[in-house]
Design a protein that fits this description.
The protein is of the alpha/beta class. Helix content is about 35%, strand content about 20%. The strands form three sheets. It has an eight-stranded mixed β-sheet with strand order 6-15-14-13-7-8-10-9, with helices on both faces. A five-stranded parallel β-sheet has the order 2-1-3-4-5, sandwiched between helices. Helix 6 crosses helix 11.
Length: about 350
Amino acid sequence: MRKILVVDNSALMRRILCDIINSDSDFHVVDVSMDGEDAYNKILSNTYDLVVMEMLLPRMDGLTILKRLREHRSVCKIIAVSTAIREEAEETLKALEYGAYDFVSRPVRLSGEYDDFASHLLRVMHNAFMEQKAKPEPTPVPTVVPKKVQVMDTVPKKVKACGKPELVFIASSTGGPQALNTVISGLTASVDVPIVVVQHMPKGFTAALAERLDQLSPLHVKEAAEGDVLQPGWVYIAPGGYHLLIAENLNKQAYLSVNKQPPVNSLRPCADVTMESLNRTSFHNILCVVLTGMGADATKGIQDIREQKNLYVITESQETCVVYGMPRSVEQNKLSNESAPIDKISEAIIKKLGV
C-alpha cells in the first residue's frame, strides 16, 4: 500500500482528498499538512510514496517547496492540485517545470463534478507508479548528454519517403509541458509551416501553456480557436476539454475547428481525433512528433494517415521521457522513423523541414 501525504490549506479539501485517496485499496493517507513549511519539513523527515499538494499554501508556497526539494535532490513524487484560474494555472505550469510529476484540476465547485475529479486524481496517482521517470533530479529544462539520433530500422517497407513536410503535428501527455518547452523554444524563426499540438490538459491550462511557450519561442504560439486559419510559423495548441479538428474551405485553405464531442479513450483533446481529421485534408507530406505520455494516443492516427499520405514520425526516446508510453506504443507498432532525446528533437524537426 502506497503511503500518501496530503497538503491543502482547506480542512474541507483535506478531508475530501483523504476520502478519495483512501477509497482506493492501493493508497493510504498517512499524514496531512495545512501549510507549506510543515509539509516541507515532513517530506524531509519521512518517506512518502507520493505527495498530493495544493500549490498556493501559507508560510511556504508549492513552488518554493519544489525548488528546495530539488536542491536536496529529493526524488519524492508530487502531484499538484490546482484550479484553472489564470494565476493558479501559471503556477501549476511552473510546478511541472520544477519537478512535479503531474497535476489535477480541482473544480471551483465540487457539486456535480466530484466523481470526475475523484476518478482523475486516482488515475493520475496510479500513473505515477506505472512508469518511472527517466531522470530522478527534476530540472526546469531537461539537460542530457547529446546523443546521436537513432534512425529506426523497424519502419514498414511500404512507407514512402516523406518529402518536405507541409505541417508538423505534435502529440504529448504526462510530462508534455516540460517537453514542449524544450522542443518549441528550440525551433527557429525560419520554420515555414504550421505546427499543431495536442497536449492532454484540462480546460483553462492550455491557454497559460500557450502564453508561456509564446514567450520562450521565436514562433507565434496560441491556444487554438474555432476558425483559426493555419499560418506558417505559428504553433496552435488544442484547447483543454475540446477536440481539435483540421479542415479546409472551398479554396483548400486549412483552418481549425473545435468541438465537445465525447472523449475518445477518456481523452479530450485526443491526438487520434485530430489526426483523423488531418487525413481528410489536402496535406500530403506530414511530420509527426510523439513526446512523453501515458497510453497509446497517436498510434492509431499514425497508422491511419500512413494508408493515404506520406508521414515521417519522430518519437522521444525512453531516456528522457517522464512516461515512456505513447512513444513506446508507436515504436512497438513499427511506426517510428527515428527516435531522439528531448534536447535533440528540435534539431531533428529543423533538419526534416530543411530550414
